[in-house]
TrEMBL record:
GO biological process terms held by the UniProt record: mRNA pseudouridine synthesis; tRNA pseudouridine synthesis
Key words of the record: Isomerase, tRNA processing
Record lineage: Bacteria, Bacillati, Actinomycetota, Actinomycetes, Streptosporangiales
E.C. numbers: 5.4.99.25
Gene transcribed to yield this protein: truB
Domain tRNA pseudouridylate synthase B C-terminal: 187-230
Protein name, per record: tRNA pseudouridine synthase B
GO MF annotation terms: RNA binding; tRNA pseudouridine(55) synthase activity
Enzyme class of the recorded protein, top EC level: isomerase
Membership in a protein family: Belongs to the pseudouridine synthase TruB family. Type 1 subfamily.
Domain tRNA pseudouridine synthase II TruB subfamily 2 C-terminal: residue ranges: 242-297
Source organism of this protein record: Streptosporangium saharense
Length: 299
């Protein structure tokens, strides 16, 4: 009997918007989606902590080359900050290291603290994060008992809204909605809000509602995807996320071979280049008077 393997037809290249369940790592989701999509060529844009749920953008086949660019787009979150307790991870997965009564903290004081953390700010990432320190992930060093010194980084919190405030004895739970730049840690916002109010704080719940143009309305659970794996075609994905530039047949031939085009004044960041027939050709960026290829997708 023949033992030859049947070669599977790879899925179309594109994006899958997953509603990540709590308790799963982003890597867990990628592993599951490899089986569902039927390909090893799967990656994700922007890690979500295991505690968090919500939008995780997954790329399959050629779309994996989009993920690094998508990870840099603006993101939206809903979360709950608990004031009155500090943890060693800045979220509910860590151990409580300091407690201070938050019963005397007013809603007005919380609002002022939130306002101070809105806009262009500097933020020290959590000790337990994936940032590399001397070649090692910070979370590995922290869990090994080493004191990790991370540098403050500029981030942009374009919206930080209070949705609800609930008193739980000496604790204060604050439901918030945050819109922020790539690299912003919501755990760090919780920590810094609690520190500013003098009572400490940490994140108890987090749900990512949006990555760039991809939001919860487009997201499907793992179970739903196992029944029907919906893949957003690359052309649609790029047109939704980046400025679009349509080119002539002659220009398309140039772009397909990594050639440069005159800049069209479409701004900073990736630009999707499409041929006369609507085919996605490449991602480019404008550098001075010319474009530079970031990724070419045509054979």
């Amino acid at each position: 009997m023949s033992t030859a393997r049947v070669k599977r037809t790879p899925p179309p290249s594109g994006l899958i918007v997953v509603d990540k369940p709590a308790g799963w790592t982003s890597h867990d989701v990628v592993g599951k989606m490899r089986g569902i999509a039927g390909t090893r060529k799967v990656g994700h844009a922007g890690t979500l902590d295991p505690m968090a749920t919500g939008v995780l953008v997954v790329g399959v086949e050629k779309a994996t080359r989009l993920l690094g660019h998508l990870a840099l787009t603006e993101k939206g979150y809903d979360g709950t900050i608990r004031l009155g307790q500090t943890t060693n991870t800045d979220d509910a997965e860590g151990e409580i290291v300091v407690s201070a009564p938050a019963a005397g903290v007013t809603v007005e004081e919380v609002a002022k603290g939130v306002e101070a953390l809105t806009g262009r700010i500097t933020q020290v990432p959590p000790q337990v994060s994936a940032i590399k320190v001397n070649g090692e992930r910070a979370y590995k060093l922290a869990r090994a008992g080493e004191e990790v010194e991370l540098k403050a980084r500029p981030v942009t919190v374009s919206a930080f809204e209070i949705l609800d405030v609930r008193r739980e004895g000496d604790l204060l739970d604050v439901d918030v909605s945050v819109t922020c730049s790539s690299g912003t840690y919501i755990r760090a916002l919780a920590r810094d809000l609690g520190a500013a109010l003098g009572v400490g704080g940490h994140l108890t719940a987090l749900r990512r509602t949006r990555v760039g143009p991809y939001d919860l309305s487009m997201a499907r659970t793992i179970d739903q995807l196992a029944t029907e794996c919906v893949i957003l075609p690359m052309a649609e994905a790029v047109a939704a996320a980046f400025p679009r530039r349509d080119v002539t047949e002659q220009e398309a031939g140039l772009v397909a071979h990594g050639g440069r085009l005159p800049s069209a004044g479409l701004g900073d960041g990736p630009i999707g280049v499409f041929g006369p027939d609507g085919t996605l050709l490449a991602l480019v960026e404008e550098k001075g008077r010319l474009t530079r290829s970031l990724a070419v997708f045509v054979p």
